[in-house]
Amino acid sequence: SQLENLQPEIKGLAQRLRYEVSVRGKQLGWSERVARLQFQRNLRRVVSELYVRDNCHPVKATLLVWVQVPLWVCVSLALRNCSVGASGSHLQEQFSSGGTLWFPDLTAPDSTWILPVSLGLVNLLIVEV
């Protein structure tokens, strides 16, 4: 990912910044604590600039998870509630006769595991792409 590609550049900039802060700290007589704080503050600024430059802030990577997981849970629960609803309901009758190919009854578990495995592979493909 873009974030991983930035790591060598961040490491190089951190080494250069550490050297510059130590030289500047010796010139101005900073204590070790002040030099460390200056380094951390400047490193955060440099890393933030890199994230903006390459448009790859770490929060963007986790944002998809925070949206996708609750959505997936809600859809799964809604489908489960529709398929195991009160017997004799109009919706359950439609689910029991609305399938195709090897799954004619959508309320019965898929004994061939074709649908769950293919869904898992498609999700893996989406995540990897």
TrEMBL record:
InterPro entries cross-referenced by the UniProt entry: YidC/ALB3/OXA1/COX18
MF (Gene Ontology): membrane insertase activity
Membrane topology: Multi-pass membrane protein
Alphabetical keyword list: Membrane, Transmembrane, Transmembrane helix
Keyword Transmembrane (UniProt): yes
GO cellular component, one term: mitochondrial inner membrane
GO BP annotations, alphabetical order: mitochondrial respiratory chain complex IV assembly; protein insertion into mitochondrial inner membrane from matrix
Protein name in UniProt: COX18 protein
Taxonomic classification: Eukaryota, Metazoa, Chordata, Craniata, Vertebrata
